[in-house]
Amino acid sequence: MFTYIFLFCWYFISFQHVLSESSDSDCLNSFSSLVCKKLANIHFSRTSSLIFNNASFTALSNYSDNFGHLLKLAPAAVLKPGEAKDIVKLIHFVYNFNSKIKNRKTKIYLACRGNGHSTNDQDLLNKTGIILDMSELSSILHINTNKLWIDVEAGILWLKLLKKTLKLNPPLSPRSWTDLLTLSVGGTLSNVGVSGQAGRFGPQISNVLEMDVVTGRGRFITCSPKLNSKLFYAVLGGLGQFGIIVRARIPLRTAPLKARTYTAVYNNIQSFTSDQKMFLNDPKKLFDYVEGSINVSSNPFTFTIELVKYYNNSSTLPTDSYLASISHFKAGSLIGVDSTYFDFLNRLQATVDYLISIGTWNFPHPWLNLWLPASNITEFYNSAVSSSNATLINGPVLLYPIRTNLINSQTSLAFPSDPSNVIFLFAILRTASPEPTAISAAEVDNLRLKTAAIALGGKGLFNVAYTKTEWIQQYGSKYARLSKYKKMYDPLHILSPNQHIFN
Ligand SMILES: Cc1cc2nc3c(=O)[nH]c(=O)nc-3n(C[C@H](O)[C@H](O)[C@H](O)COP(=O)(O)OP(=O)(O)OC[C@H]3O[C@@H](n4cnc5c(N)ncnc54)[C@H](O)[C@@H]3O)c2cc1C
Question: Where are the transmembrane segments (predicted)?
Fold first, then answer.
């Protein structure tokens, strides 16, 4: 009887919500079992959830896979923190646990999951790992309409943030976006956050005023360009290596009402990219967004420029005849489409919903994202891309420029330099059939393109799985600085080991 009363009370005084507690046999091995037991003894906030392995593995199955659908790794446990303090407690526990052990094989690792849109194993961990699922830390904390900024918890999706700021009077909006809005603020700030607006406003990592970060030592630190600036810049583009972003302050501007999207087709890479650069560098800032893509369904490949002008009053829009007079696109190929500002920013959602409905959203995505210096873009295209097998590509191919002088070189982002201060993003967003041969054929093709890009001064971004040696090459002179920061902020190499940079 007393045992029952004790157990009953224990359940209710326990602060954490344990979704699926494990016994020894439930855990993958004795080590993860030990981790699970120790985690269960930490008093996380009432709004947090701990998820352990259970017999059917269902509770953890969402965390053993990501958008890439290329790898499956089951972690020991998942913490959904309800408050930033939970992250501090968790990292203290992991730090203390790891500092007491000598044998590296029994270390515990931590990886952060924003919205699981990584395509390799960046946000996955095996049985010695704990995943920090940031999805519950997704509140809007404060909006300052005088100083024009918004404070958000880092697990918030950009879509939710936008919906909130557009409801203000007057409607406000962040300046820099990604093509897809269902990515987390912490996830894109740890990578880059790039889209057609980056040419004008810089990527999202150039559009942050302040952050709260929990380092790999478990220290909660507020940082900005003036306060703890080393940590601030290390974390931006830092691939989760130096700390967990828990809050970000994002600058806002008055939101336009509408957007007109102009598309036009080109037959040749030189006129396509030189027009893109012209619009990018236009001192009159005619367009708010410059992107483009390679049409691999035509033979030979053609190119589509995508230009967007925000507006409130249509009389300020450039006319078709004016655009035709300054550009080199195929006569008659220019199309202009009007939409609300929100519908333009959220334009991919309908396609995503469709791909989900036909089941291919869950197919493997062996994506490749590269930066190329503008000076070598034609050579890269002619030597490596123009003869690519279109069937193997099976997805959109993006090609658009951004200006490097809008990226702070103190951030951790690796990007090439070019005398013109312009670099191109090249992305092959493949969907492969689930057969191993299809995936490996795509990966071989990615390696071919990556090798060609690196030989021409290019760099990888997002999901390019690098060995440590390749990371040293990727970061170049930045590697020494980043290694120093790793020692300062995550000396036991606990955070995001599957980026393979320092581990
Ligand atoms: C369909 C699709 C469209 C995309 N479109 C774009 C685009 O237009 N522009 C663009 O720039 N990118 C784009 N991406 C890439 C995307 O920015 C990255 O994959 C990003 O990591 C995804 O964010 P996420 O919230 O899903 O993060 P996750 O994939 O869950 O996490 C990725 C990594 O980020 C780190 N991380 C996540 N949250 C935090 C945090 N709070 N603190 C510290 N580190 C953290 C972790 O180390 C983790 O390893 C796209 C990806 C997909 C799948």
Answer: none
Kindly report the number of other CB atoms within 10 A of residue 99's CB atom.
10
* CA pair distance 471, 453, nearest whole angstrom: 15
Amino acid code (one letter) for 435: E
Measured distance CA(380)–CA(342) in Å, rounded: 35
Residue 472 corresponds to which tokens in the numbers above? 């040293």
Q: Which of 138, 142, 177 is nearest to 156 (CA)?
A: 138
CB within 8 A of 59, min separation 6: which ones?
Answer: 19, 20, 51, 52, 53, 78
**What's the pLDDT at 331?**
94
CATH number for region 2-136: 3.30.43.10
How high is the pLDDT of residue 128? Answer: 76
| Pairwise CA distance, residues 329 & 302, whole Å | 11
CB environment 413-437: b (16+ within 10 A), e (fewer): bbbbebeeebbbbbbbbbbbeeeee
List alpha helices for 153-216, DSSP H: 158-166, 185-189, 198-201
Nearest to 443 by CA among 468, 414, 467, 464: 464
**Within 13 Å and on the Cβ side, how many CA atoms surround 429?**
16
Q: What is the 463 CA–ligand 1 centroid distance (Å)?
A: 10
213 and 231 in contact (C-beta within 8 Å)? yes
Note whether 366 and 445 are within 8 A (CB). Answer: no
Mutate to test the pocket of ligand 1, among 180, 213, 245, 499 (most ligand atoms within 8 A of CB): 180
d(CA 30, CA 445): 40
For the chain, list residues with pLDDT below 50: 1-28, 55-56
**Domain ranges (residues) in the chain:** 2-136, 140-255+476-499
Q: Which atom of ligand 1 is nearest to the CA of 154?
A: 41
The CA 122 to ligand 1 mean position distance, Å, reads: 9
DSSP characters over 244-257:
EEEEEEEE-EEPPS
CA-185 nearest atom, ligand 1: 25
> Max Cα separation, the chain?
88
Which atom of ligand 1 is nearest to 246's Cα? 41
Residues 205 and 198: their CA atoms lie apart, in Å, by: 10
H or E segment at 295? strand 289-295
CB atoms within 10 A of CB 326: 12
pLDDT of residue 500: 84
- Tell me the ipTM for this assembly: 0.99
- Per CATH, domain 140-255+476-499 is 3.40.1280.10: no
